Amino acid sequence: MAENLKGLDLTEGSIAKTLIIFALPYLAANILQSLYGAVDLFVVGLYCSAESVAAVSTGTQVTQIVTSLITGLTLGSTILIGSYKGERDEESVKKAIGTTLTIFFFVSLAITFLLLFFLDEILTALRTPSQSFALTKEYVSVCAYGCLFICGYNAIAAILRGYGDSRSPMLFVLIACILNIVLDFLFVSSFGLGVGGTALATVISQAVSMVVSVLYLRHRNFIFDFRLRSFAPDKDIALRLARIGIPISFQEMAVRISFLYLTAVMNAIGVYSAAVVGISAKYDVFAMLSATSLANALAAITAQNYGRGSMDRARKSLWLSLLFALCVAFLFWLWAQLSPETMIGVFTDDEAVIQAGIPFFRSCSYDYIAVTLVFILNGYINGMQKTVWTMVSCTFGAIALRIPLVCIFSRHFPDNLGALGMIAPTVSFIMALYTLIYVMKGKKAQKGN
What we know:
Layout: H1 15-47, H2 50-86, H3 90-117, H4 119-125, H5 133-144, H6 147-163, H7 167-190, H8 194-219, H9 235-269, H10 271-287, H11 289-308, H12 311-338, H13 340-345, H14 351-364, H15 366-383, H16 387-412, H17 417-421, H18 423-448
Helix pairs in contact: 1-2, 1-7, 1-8, 1-10, 1-11, 2-3, 2-5, 2-6, 2-9, 2-10, 2-11, 3-6, 3-9, 5-8, 6-8, 7-8, 9-10, 9-16, 10-14, 11-12, 11-15, 12-15, 15-18, 16-18
């Protein structure tokens, strides 16, 4: 019989060692997961037209908002399960797992329906270029049918991370990533399926990843047995999960909507600017991977220590996470300042796209540093289950700051991509400032108590 799967106890041992051991597989999994969209764009750019690149760029923006909704909710599960484990309450851990998986089954069905039913309206609102409208619709439509697998994988990964296991999700996504790369080249290069082929490759690889994860956990005698009777949701846990997860999901949605508005503005300028913002979005993901990975790992670490009452340990993990993440963000910023054309050239050799993207990359790359501060600080706050505060903060930044600035700049500097690129870092630096003040005030209040 296989050895039982046990998660790390994040409340004991060396803080730096615990952070590194837990966060590195988290980072590796997020790097691999980010390769989904990047490989799609790379393969399409290699074998297809600029219209196809724009289609995948815009389509990815739509699918990212869905992923943000899902990962926001699943992070709530990570925090809740981490808190229960910190309290040593195994029965509540089991109930939380069953509740999470049941809820996400129905969430996936709802998202699929809404995407397919309102797809034309969504793409029209994004001002998708007419040359790439049909291709974008094809890409998103195929991806919509994979929502069940996106929800399933992310829910299982979130559960494991809250339990203290960040290694298994990394293995599951590695399988999916390798399969996705193989199928991308097979469907696009050999079968000539174009944009639809890249989407189909993504759906198939995610489905395989989810099935493998369930079989693996059953084999390892995981705390949850995946039997039908175990999927009965617990009302109290469901309400607590909603209170923690919905604010996180809402804040992610607000941020994505504000970036979708920027995408709509860039799409209205033309197909080349649409391609630029799509390529930039890929680098945003990679440049911020250390921040997002460490922030989510920090949320799980803080949750377990919050449940145990060890907040001094959680605060030390916060400062270490900031140090590690800022070092990586600085390297990407430096690349964008010294050689933005090589960054863009990874995804396309179209000289018009490269020249249009250089000023945008140089200005928007300051956000790599600014948003790192925001992500890490919010990860710490979320781990303490204060997700309503982060929701208000991120919604304010997205709706009250980013969207008005995009509107103003697009009217007065419609052809200045460098100016448009400065919007994101400006907003992020403002958010980082007031979030840091909030964290420091909370630290003083805890010392006072």
